C-alpha cells in the first residue's frame, strides 16, 4: 500500500525534532510537504528532513491535492482555526494538544465536513508502556486502582517562548497539565465528576507556572497532579491500588526509539526493594500515533481520540481554572 502523504504546518520545534522524523520512519506514512510563513525556513527544514515540497504559506500547502493528512503543531491559539481550514480543504488533521483555548473554542471543530477525521495529538496513549500499564490494571494485579499521582515539570523562563504567553494559550496547565488529566482518564477509564485546582502565576508573564489539581473520579478514585514550567525537570506517574503500586519511570517524554521501564511494587517493604522491573521494548510513540491515525482513516473508523474526547479534556481544564477563581469544586 502506498504510504499516506502528510503535510506539516510550520517548522515548530516539536515537529522538526520529534514528529516529522517519526512519520518519516513510520510504517504507513511519509511527510511530503512542509509550510512556513518564511519560505527559507520551510526549504531548510525540507532539505534537512527529506521532505519533497516546501511552501511559503499554510494556504498553499492546504491547496496541494497530493496531501491527505495534516499535522498542526502551531501555537495553541491557532489550533482550531487552522484545523478547520485544513478539514475544509479535505485533509484529515492530527492537531497538537491542547486542541483549543477553551472547550467552547474546541467545540467549533464540530463544523468539520463529513468524512474528515481530526485527532488530538496525545502520543502517550499509543506508547506500549501506557498500553501495558492499562493491561496490568485491568488484570487486577495491583487490586483496585484508587489513586493516581502525576508530577511533570521543566524550567523555562524565556519571555519570548510561547509557553510563557497567555494570549497564545501558554502556562503549565495548558502545556503539560493536559497530560496529567489524560493519564487519569486513560488509566481509570472514566471521567472526573468534579475538580479543584491551585495556581501560582508568574508576575511578569501572567501564566500559571505552578499548578496542582485534584480530580474526583467517583468510587473512591482520585487523580492528584502537580505541573510546573519553572521547577526542576521531572516526570512520574504513580498508580496506587489496593494491593500494589505501578510506576511509569518516564511517562510523557519516553526516549524516542528506545526502551522504557515500568516498576511494579507489592508494598511489602517501604524502601522500594520489592520492585518488579518490566522493560518495554524500544518504541517511538510519535510514529505509533501517526500510524494509528492513518490506519483508522484508511479503514473507515473514527479517530482513536477524536473531537469529542478532546472537548471533554478541555472542559476539565476549564473547570480547573474556574475552581481557582471560585475557590471551590467545579463540575467539568
How many helices?
9
Question: Which structural class best describes the helix and strand composition?
Answer: alpha/beta
Sum up the overall morphology in one term. Answer: globular
Distance between the termini: 43 Å
Q: Let me know the largest β-sheet.
A: 8 strands, mixed
Helix content: 25-40%
User: Segments where pLDDT lies below 50 for 5+ residues?
Assistant: none
Question: Mean pLDDT, as a whole number?
Answer: 97
- The proportion of residues in beta strands is 25-35%
Total beta strand runs: 14
SSE pattern = EHEHEHEHEHEHEHEEEEEEEHH
Strand order of the largest sheet: 8-9-10-7-11-12-13-14
Q: Compute the CA-based radius of gyration.
A: 20 Å
Description of the molecule:
- There is one protein chain.
- The chain is an alpha/beta fold and 332 residues long.
- The chain has helices at 13-25, 39-49, 58-62, 79-88, 103-107, 128-139, 172-188, 285-298, 307-326; strands at residues 4-9, 29-35, 53-55, 69-72, 92-95, 118-120, 145-155, 194-201, 208-218, 221-228, 230-241, 245-248, 258-265, 276-283.
- It has an 8-stranded mixed beta sheet.
- It is globular.
- The chain starts with a strand and ends in a 6-residue tail after the last helix.
